[in-house]
Amino acid sequence: MGRKYPEFINGFRDRHGKMRFYFRRGLISLAVPSPGTPEFSEAYGKLLAECEPNRTRRIAAPGKGTMTWVIAQYMASDRYQRLKPATKEVYGRIFDWLRDKCGDYLLTTLREQHVRHIRNELKDRPSVADYTVDKVGMLWGFAKEHLEMNLGPNPAAEVASIHTEHESHKAWPAELCEKFEALPHPRLVLAYDLMRYTGQRRSDIVQMTWKRFDGKAIELVQEKTGTYVWLPCHPTLAKKLARVERTAPYILTTERGRPFKAGSVTQMMGLCCKELGYPGYSPHGLRHLAGSELAEAGCSMHEVMSILGHLTEREAAGYVKQAQRKRMAQSGMDKWAGHGGV
After folding, report:
1. 320 burial via Cβ count (<10 Å: 0-12, 13-18, 19+)
2. Structural domains in the chain, sorted by start
3. pLDDT tens-digit readout, 239-251
């Protein structure tokens, strides 16, 4: 059994063996001292005090038609219940923030300028800001369609995004890959290898089992989409897996032989990237790297889709289009250089 920490406190051991602790509630994630120390008690008390008004408000029954009430109705619906656990976790953080910030507001009073204000409050985290606006729009549509609320046009529809595509999940550069592969942390490097050479999400690599790997291919059902994927094993990954001792059903395990949690993979890899001098890089950037390399290798859109598990051409089109632009640019430059110009 793992140690029980105070409410909202998460602890994990980093690659140097040092315990790190975070206060996590909704969209809040702040480092705190070790539990049991005077410094922790002071910091924890202040953070709880800041949350106390919100906690008190959430205990009371939400008024009908408020943001909190609509969220509760949505979470009780079949639409929400059909979501994957990882998706529910993400939705939950967004919903916590919305309840805390505007839970008492009637949805009928929500206007475009209010949604824009919500977005701007999160502008230091562009992807989170845009995702929150998207969920506000989703809740509005759900209330209008399924709760029979008298609502007008969706106020989130014309609120502009503030981040560029894939900004929060930049493809890893070669230098970072080389440094990460040299880390003295075999389990974390194995997580890197599984994402680097399969293009799968963190939620999928933690579910990979030896039973589903025959030495030539890995079978899995993607946690996010439910898509079945059959993956021929990349030669580099096959060589690395051949050196891994099979001591548990799962390919990626902790020192105790238990499967890793997807969130732990993100935290540990993100911290390592920062310590290596590449802050802002996440495990999902390895999926973008795989997509880019597949396209640059000349793979068709449907080949990219089959490996990454994309369900629509639009998802894979960006990788293929960018690779085509690179090839066209190189071809054009070669022709220019061979034309005899200065």
Report:
1. buried
2. 9-146 (no CATH), 174-330 (1.10.443.10)
3. 999 999 998 999 9
